[in-house]
Amino acid sequence: MPTQQDLFSPEWWSTQTEVLFQWAATSGLRIILIVIFLLVALRLARFFVRRAIGIALRPHGVNALDDLMITKRQATLTSLLEAVATIVLIVVAILMIFQEIGFAIAPILASAGVAGVAIGFGAQSLVKDIISGAFIIVERQFSVGDVVRVGDLSGGVEEINLRTIVLRAVDGSVHIIPNGEIKQVTVMTRDWSRLVLDLDVGYGADIPRASAIVKEILEAYAAEHPDFVLEPPEVLGVESLGESSVQIRAWMKMLPGKQWPAGRELRGRIKAAFDEAGIEIPFPQRTLWIHKDDDTPSDAPADRSPV
Predict the structure, then answer these.
(1) Is 207:255 a contact under the CB 8 Å cutoff?
(2) Which residue, among 166, 178, 174, has the nearest Cα to 132 in the 3D structure?
(3) CA torsion angle for 125, 128, 132, 134 (degrees, to 10)?
(4) 166 has which bridge partners?
(5) I need a surface site. Which of 1, 140, 182, 263 has the fewest CB within 10 A?
(6) How far apart are CA 7 and CA 53, in angstroms?
(7) Count of CB atoms within 10 A of residue 256's CB?
(8) C-alpha distances in angstroms, 147 versus 2, 154, 162?
(9) Regarding predicted confidence, which is higher, 52 or 118?
(10) Are 222 and 265 in contact (CB under 8 A)?
């Protein structure tokens, strides 16, 4: 520490000025160059990140919703990669500046390594969620607006974040699922959907006539809605022979998400047409046999009554 006498000594100030200029001409200049290098590197990193993502994820200009989702994925990945590049470059620059100032960076690196291991063990699930979210966005496994099923949960996708996805169930419930917990996803609205109708009729029904009625109703519906019915409907025939019914299967290909309202309307039309044609839609039945006592004559018939 300089004494009070040194502070008023021209020789001391001359020496300190000389030392300062010497430091500025060596370490100081290198620190300035490091800061300039940092600023240039940050600009270059952001430019290359945006350029690479712009080439990898480019709007097609065909579907406005798809282009909106691509733009959202671009923004998400750009912010993520820019943040990673910024943190890495700033940390490297700070360590270089510390070395120029005279701080020993070896203990800092050792402490950072220990802290990094500790944080890594504590944040494994977070890192897993972020990596899984990045792959979901890049691979476009599903998009906002899709209806998906994840395990036992299902609903419309409202948000896709780097750490979580948000599903809205039919009853309005919101499911928030960490991306790292997603093992398998069933997307029910990808590109196109198929309405599958399994219709039960009684064993005594005229199967060809019932199939013809179903086909007529489906074709009429397809003619009414050519904007979202993609292919002519098909009646495949008898799908199974049940305990009390014969099951007829029909299907129709349409735009994603349209199969549910179409199914509700068509089932109502088919029910009305079957009633008008006298075709029975069966319900579960059981036959109860009531046996008489042992003193009942053997030739006496047992009572039977359907339940």
Answers:
(1) no
(2) 178
(3) 110
(4) 159, 176
(5) 1
(6) 59
(7) 17
(8) 74, 7, 19
(9) 52
(10) no
The first and second tokens of residue 161, run together, are: 């974040």
Phi first, then psi, for residue 127 (nearest 5°) are -60, -40
Give the CA count within 13 Å in the CB-facing half-sphere of 156.
Answer: 9
pLDDT value, residue 239: 92
pLDDT score, position 142: 82
**Angle (nearest 5°) at CA 215 between 212 and 219:** 140
Residue 138, pLDDT above cutoff 60: yes
In the block, residue with structure tokens 């063990």 = 121
Give the count of alpha carbons within 13 A of 191, CB side only. 2
**Closest Cα partner for 197 from 253, 245, 255?**
253
What is the distance, to the nearest Å, from the Cα of residue 108 to the centroid of all Cα atoms in its chain? 40
d(CA 100, CA 29): 10
Residue 26 in this model has a pLDDT that exceeds 70: no
* Other CB atoms within 10 A of residue 203 CB: 12
- Rounded average pLDDT over 185-208: 89
DSSP tag of 301? P
8 Å CB contact between 100 and 59: no
How far, in Å, CA of 157 to CA of 185, rounded?
A: 12
C-alpha dihedral, 280 to 286 to 287 to 289, nearest 10°? -170
The pLDDT value recorded for residue 305 is 47
pLDDT digits (tens, 9 = 90+) for 219-241: 999 999 998 899 999 999 999 99
Q: Whole-angstrom Cα distance, residue 146 to residue 197? A: 22
Q: How confident is the model at residue 98 (pLDDT cuts 50, 70, 90)?
A: confident
Q: How confident is the model at residue 108 (pLDDT cuts 50, 70, 90)?
A: low
Q: What is the DSSP letter of 25?
A: I
Query: Residue 165 — φ and ψ, nearest 5°?
Result: -120, 150
CA separation (Å) from 195 to 229, 263, 293? 10, 7, 54
Q: What is d(CA 149, CA 167) in angstroms, rounded to the nearest whole number?
A: 9
